[in-house]
């Protein structure tokens, strides 16, 4: 750990670019996850590259084609591939095939539950495999757009056209549909299990209060929202899709209804990725011009992590302790920052 603390009033520190440890992945990166202090950069094709805090990199072959999606619980990374396979990579670098779709359809979405259950989708079908138990599946009306487990109980949110289906895999007849017209893609539950929010194909978010199904419309974006993240304690939902980071408030029972979002870190470039610190009221954000900033939520103070390099930031994540930030751009230019 260095002596740098983003929450302290350190007006003299404007840039920490000289503290970034660089790594070259050599190919497009779609996501980054952590095994402890080791960053795992998921490539768009075939490989995951494990990078230590000193920048030393170890590529691991995990697929024979495209990696379409990934999720991690810190113990393993589960990935969906275009050959119909769900593959897992553990912290020791061991690769295993978790499941194979009978029709070899693309695995479009994956999600992990804290108890070890894995969800994935192929076409209109969502699957759930618990650590002990038989494989369960559920068909929704249209292609699955996103998957997320609720933070309490084994309940899966399945985004699709015209809404989200909530499904308890272990309870027959438990499916409940939250309806809203349009194409719903990414989906997330609030950490307190009170709200569910989707990113739509149009430039907007839509949400529901789970207690009564009350709708929450979050509009005004110039572009589609592709990256979302809950701030520490679930007090806000940070999003990409504009030339500022949009943070919707979720501190009351009404969530963002009737409230204006905070707009932080404006630049003449679109925000492409957001990553909220797991414990403190700060976030990192990456832009379409390659810039990466750290932002303090209470007052919007900014610290430069990476100057604009021309390529969009495509991967951004903190480790579980919040002591390391990892990033990569569209060309695989990556880095780690110890904070």
UniProtKB/TrEMBL annotation:
Keywords: Repeat, WD repeat. Pfam families: ANAPC4_WD40 (PF12894). Residues 278-337 form the Anaphase-promoting complex subunit 4-like WD40 domain. InterPro entries: Apc4-like_WD40_dom, WD40/YVTN_repeat-like_dom_sf. This is WD40 repeat domain-containing protein. It comes from Tardiphaga alba. The lineage of its organism: Bacteria, Pseudomonadati, Pseudomonadota, Alphaproteobacteria, Hyphomicrobiales.
